[in-house]
Amino acid sequence: MGEFRSPEEQITVDFTMHGEISVVCVAGEVDMTTSTSVGETLRTLLEYRPTALVLDLTETDYFGSGGLAILIDTVERTTRAGVGFAVASGRACVLRPLRVTKVDTVVRVYPDTDAALRALELALSARAAG
């Protein structure tokens, strides 16, 4: 029999700052019951107007429709705010739903947080120079 875990035990959401780029790290399962905390964290951080935002899903074990909805919402919000946005994950459980739903065509996905940070920093430098 499977083990039942409450939504609070299924997910951990933390954030760090790398200069002016906010990184939201999500570990565990992102589904309809847990995606609310991820979305709230992303919306709150956007209120502080970081230059860019990375959603680190490198420790995410499950990524369902609730997570996809949060990604689409975040893409729309960051685009309106002029804030760079990227996802970090090389995990099949995250990449597969992104590919199947074609969400990977509207959000930049990198294999890890360092790659996402480098790409966003380059984009920010290019924007500042141009």
Automatic annotation (TrEMBL):
It comes from Umezawaea endophytica. InterPro entries: Anti-sigma_ant (IPR003658), STAS_dom (IPR002645), STAS_dom_sf (IPR036513). It holds the Pfam family STAS. This is Anti-sigma factor antagonist. GO terms for molecular function: anti-sigma factor antagonist activity. The lineage of its organism: Bacteria, Bacillati, Actinomycetota, Actinomycetes, Pseudonocardiales. Residues 11-120 form the STAS domain. Belongs to the anti-sigma-factor antagonist family. PANTHER family: ANTI-SIGMA FACTOR ANTAGONIST TM_1081-RELATED-RELATED (PTHR33495), ANTI-SIGMA-F FACTOR ANTAGONIST RSFB (PTHR33495:SF13).
